[in-house]
Amino acid sequence: MSQCCFEEILAQNERLEYINSVYVDIFMHMPQGAIIVNIEGKIKEVNLAAQDMMGQSLEEMQGKNISEYLGTQIPYTRAMLESGQSYRDVELLLTGQKRNLHAVLSGIPFRNKEGEIRGGIIFLSPMENIHLLVNRFSGARANYTFKDIVTNSPSMEEAIHLAKMAAVSMSNVLLEGESGTGKEVFAQAIHSESQRRNGPFVAVNCGAIPRELIGSELFGYTEGAFTGARKGGKLGKFELATGGTLFLDEIGDMPLEQQVSLLRVLQEKNITRIGDSRIIPVDVRVICATNKNLWQEVEAGNFRADLYYRLNVINITIPPLRQRQEDIMLLFDYFLSKIRVGLLMEKEERERIKDYLQNYRWPGNIRELQNVVERMVHMAGESKLGFRHLPPEIRRLPNDPELLESTGDSPSMSIYEARSQRKKMMQEQEQAILIKLLQEYKGNISRVAKEMGVNRSTVYRKMKAYKIDS
Ligand SMILES: Nc1ncnc2c1ncn2[C@@H]1O[C@H](COP(=O)(O)OP(=O)(O)O)[C@@H](O)[C@H]1O
Ligand SMILES: [Mg+2]
Predict the structure, then answer these.
(1) Residue 289 alpha carbon, nearest atom of ligand 1
(2) Which of ligand 1's atoms lies nearest the C-alpha of 151?
(3) Which CATH architecture has domain 335-399?
(4) Local structure of 425: helix, strand or coil
(5) Ligand 1 pocket, Cβ-based, cut-off 6 angstroms
(6) How confident is the model at residue 233 (pLDDT cuts 50, 70, 90)?
(7) Is 317 strand, coil or helix?
(8) pLDDT, tens digit, 9 for 90 and up, residues 1-54
(9) Which residues lie at CB < 5 A from ion ligand 2?
(10) Which of ligand 1's atoms lies nearest the C-alpha of 327?
(11) Which CATH superfamily includes the segment(s) 138-319?
């Protein structure tokens, strides 16, 4: 062999080696699992992701038949090796004592130059990754944290205190409160502060889904499970929320028959899709909300007591806005500043607005207040914001018969008088508690604050307001 030829072969060899190492690297390190089999289905190569998913090393798997690994989904691979049919996105679910494997499979046959089938490659995507994508693109994430909760009221601070304790535990939480009080905000904040903050936050409004569809929404279904079932089936919210939090809003609207299924899932921590028999493990923290009094629903026979106790491990009641006088103007200014900064308002106009806002019933709570602010800003246009921009339902206030009735006070007393009287009573109560605690803890503000479930600055503020010396 001449010198020139030999060198050329060496160079060629080097190039081939390089190309080979690139392909091996791609194969070994690709994020999807990949298994190469020969025509008999014997395993030849297994990349790192597939070794990880199977929980076995290359040495353990090499030479074994792929049928040992693919459970009931092996026919697809057989057809691929026998007749060269590729397949896509077939779901694989293996539950064992040691480990579970939940993945989506695709297979592509290999052929030689003559077109004969030589084997094939099987790709595996972990189901977690599929969930991650679905949740990411469907917006199943929490946006609120505790910092976003605007409040200055002791009862709310107490609720926040409870919610923060709930966040560090794994217990189920029941949020009770009227519509628009911030139940979903709380649910998101709890999730954002919990260990599961990087997992999905999936919300289901049980009151907005037709009764007969709640089951399939929560647990999913397989293709052909019922007439109208979507081709390919559908993932349920429990599965999608795995590793995160499932928020069941308006739980009081859940039909009795679905309550049984829900209880079962909470007890056994697995689900079965409708039309299917396979058991799928789920790891979900459940937060529920209701604007009904759920215990009353239990007593009326509309809600199962056993489910009530399961869900109501931690109970947080969010007070309505009308019982949070100190929050009304705070939130008014907050929403105003969010829409338009530096909006002008005369001082007397502001006082008049304040008077009316604080005496309104706020049936829609914070959501309603937010709408009112938006409407007022819209009405005002370029002019200064004033009393005349208040919506009529609020300006009508003092003569509202429903309002007088709902306060339960004697009709001879004006709404303002009733309110100020009640306020005074509450303040006296609070003052008495504060004095008692300060004595008990010998003026230790931190202890008092902890006992009251508020922060220290709130205690100082209240001491000043009630003219209490430390
Ligand atoms: N404390 C709060 N601070 C700021 N915004 C709030 C607060 N509570 C509620 N909101 C706002 O009010 C609206 C209604 O809250 P939401 O949590 O959906 O109420 P609910 O679930 O009780 O009906 C949301 O737009 C939310 O942004
Ligand atoms: Mg809500």
Answers:
(1) 21
(2) 1
(3) Orthogonal Bundle (1.10)
(4) helix
(5) 149-151, 177, 179-185, 289, 366-367, 370
(6) confident
(7) strand
(8) 566 788 899 999 999 999 999 999 999 999 999 999 999 999 999 999 999 999
(9) 184
(10) 1
(11) P-loop containing nucleotide triphosphate hydrolases (3.40.50.300)
